[in-house]
């Protein structure tokens, strides 16, 4: 997948997630399915918390990313390979690190958070499209579960990540 394809997929998947959130009643949005499981509001807030640092990093100067994290000289993983690696880490007990864990009670409205999320996706996509292909495929940054991965692989992860939380959202509201 090239950068344009990835950005289209990001818009599609995050829009689908946001549409599902808007279909929920306020009660369903805030309903806690069971102890230790996130409600719809927490899934949404988690995605905002996860995309914010991506926007920040992808808008840094290329030299700054390279100086801090370096480049790889290997083939990028495919979307499917990256998804499989992520699922293995989750099966091994991988969880979101503290900065990405939403509070128990979310104070922002679903309208505020969905607008914020889609604005972040727009900024993230703009940053992806500004990168040279060589930089997108060789600069690396850290993922909390996967370690150092390329900017392209991180974009793949952002695409799967929303899918993962869409599935979690479905479970949260069907409980």
Description:
By secondary structure, this protein is mostly helical. It has one domain: dinb family like domain (Four Helix Bundle (Hemerythrin (Met), subunit A), Up-down Bundle), CATH 1.20.120.450. The chain has helices at 3-23, 26-30, 40-58, 62-69, 79-91, 110-130, 133-138, 151-174; strands at residues 140-143, 147-150. Strands 1-2 form a two-stranded antiparallel ribbon. α5 (79-91) packs across α8 (151-174). The protein is globular and about 50 Å long. The model has no long low-confidence stretch (mean pLDDT 95). Keywords: Coiled coil. Residues 10-166 form the DinB-like domain. Residues 103-130 form a coiled coil. This is DinB superfamily. InterPro entries: DinB-like, DinB/YfiT-like.
Concise description?
The chain has 175 residues and is mainly α.
Essential attributes:
single chain, 175 residues, mainly alpha, Four Helix Bundle (Hemerythrin (Met), subunit A), two-stranded antiparallel sheet, globular
